[in-house]
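Hey, quick one: can you model this chain's 3D structure?
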Amino acid sequence: MTDQNDDRAGQVDAGIDVKVRLLQGGEIAMGPGKADLLDAIARTGSISAAARAMGMSYRRAWLLVDVMNRSFGAPLVRSAAGGSQGGGASVTGMGLEVLTHYRAMQAAASAAAGPYAAALTKLLRPDN
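Sure thing. Here's the predicted structure for all 128 residues.
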């Protein structure tokens, strides 16, 4: 009887995780976490619900939205205060455009890095 781990002896368990960040004025205008936050806001209709879904505080999510809104020519997220009308948030047309371009850039960077990652993976020490 063989242990399942014995079948993997000498193999390398590796992958690539390319993180693309767009900088503006010394701040990260867009990166993987901010893109995920925009997706979550679009999905939930709320900064607070998006923050909960991502396991972050409302304050952290609000600060990330603030940086994004200040970094681009128009806001990426519009929010309305809560109260009797319920409040909420939505990703603007500019936000959707930025998100589309960012995701395309992220995919292109990962694809371009693929051959280099394969070469580097061959140089890694095998798992034991």
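One thing worth noting: Residues 23 and 29 are 5 Å apart (CA to CA).
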